[in-house]
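Hi R.,

Quick one: here's the Protein Wnt sequence you asked about.
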Amino acid sequence: MGNLCLKNVVVTIVIVLIHLQLVASTWWFISQLPLHAVGAGVLCDNVPGLVGRQRRMCRIHQEAMVILGQGALQGVHECQHQFRQHRWNCSTLDRDTSVFGKVLLKVGTREAAFVYSISSAGVAYSITRACSLGHLSTCACDPNRKGRGRDKQGNPFQWGGCSDDVNYGQKFAKMFIDAKEKQHMDARALMNLHNNKAGRQAVQKQRKLECKCHGISGSCAMRTCWRALRDFRRVGTFLKNRYNGAIQVMMNQNSADADLVVANRNHKKPTKYDLVYFDASPDYCNEDLELGSPGTAGRECNASSIDTDGCDIMCCGRGYHTHTEKRVDKCECKFHWCCDVVCKNCTRTVDVHTCLGERTQRKYKWGH
Ligand SMILES: *[C@@H]1O[C@H](CO)[C@@H](O)[C@H](O)[C@H]1NC(C)=O
Ligand SMILES: *[C@@H]1O[C@H](CO)[C@@H](O)[C@H](O)[C@H]1NC(C)=O
Ligand SMILES: *[C@@H]1O[C@H](CO)[C@@H](O)[C@H](O)[C@H]1NC(C)=O
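And here's the predicted structure, written out as tokens:
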């Protein structure tokens, strides 16, 4: 009996360890790996945190995996751009398979919502673009954009050129990324699925119709048009606005099917474009790597701004340090015929403000 009991304990411990390992890693890690390694296939079995279906897709679609990794990295860079003036600045941890810190995977904050959506958008975007560029053998331009169409004003045109096949990119991203959540359908999985979808939708929404005129001396008697992705920056800005207006949700206790409902009945129901979250965010003031928070000590802040980059907010009331720095800019640029622009180097002296850390502050207080 004792032996059996011990065996159960050991099995339980092993299961818990495997679960912890899975909880603490994610497919985002592909974005942190060198591309030649991603393309080599051998990696599929070694990236921690991939679920069965992801491993299979990884082995079958090796060329697409390289694109997927690039797309995820594009998501990371866009996240860092959008949050450059926030306390939480979307920094990644070196060689950590959770990429942004373990807490982001466990606690359903707005920041988590943003990271899921921008990563999913990055993959949908880059796969779609790769299709149009002919970089993937399984897809190309959108085959359904044929014959006649009408623009928003109701003016007719002929589909032509290469419309980006955003459907393919979305499907690929959904199949790969959502596979992880479908393994274990709990409340957090529902949140992630919603935000993954919001990311894919953002890519689809940020497209535009591009047209070319044909006819005698550009009379535009006939137009051919195609639907094209726009700059990824637009997708990032769109999702950042959704982050600002993210909607807090909770599990619906009364329903037989698991679903999410708004936490505050006075708030609007989320649409497929909105980001949803469960938990209030920590303040991200101090260093906590589990939290993916480098803390704001040493961060540059703006003494005259009342926004998140202002010294009051950025430094969490700890105060800041000011020093002057010489910065070199291009100035007095002149156009020289032909075709050169020659500039002078101007040196400006600027005041640079940086946040004090907890300890610096204490030392400062107690040092005298
Ligand atoms: C975020 O802030 C930390 C510390 O304040 C800094 O070391 C890091 O480089 C920043 N990350 C990015 C991506 O800007
Ligand atoms: C600081 O903030 C002010 C007010 O928002 C803005 O006008 C100024 O350009 C900012 N300075 C820098 C260096 O970003
Ligand atoms: C300005 O600075 C750059 C790099 O610091 C240098 O390469 C360039 O020659 C400088 N231009 C002038 C006009 O001094």
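DSSP finds eleven helices and twelve strands in the chain.

Cheers,
M.
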